[in-house]
Amino acid sequence: MDKKELIETEIIKTMDLLEYGEKLPHDSYFFSRLQERMQEQPKKNIVIASLRPILLTCLLALNIITVLSYISTAESSEQIVTNQDPLTTFASDFNLDQNNIFIIE
Questions:
Q1: Other beta carbons within 10 Å of 89
Q2: DSSP state of 2
């Protein structure tokens, strides 16, 4: 038997199992019990349902405020750095005094 015939026999066996195999027993009242259970679930509380959009709006506002404050802080720090001499900025970052600056040059 070559490979193609082997595959075809396996496919036929699988199809026969699906067609003539044993069926699992099922409960005929499953759907009606499921519907009852779904109807018994408690309704959402109106307070909780109204708090969700309010909390999401507050979170969005907080994020916007945070982004705006970060941008304004970044712009002011860039202005400070760009207005200074790079050598002076380097010296202040590493706590170098005036004598060490001249050694670097």
A1: 14
A2: -
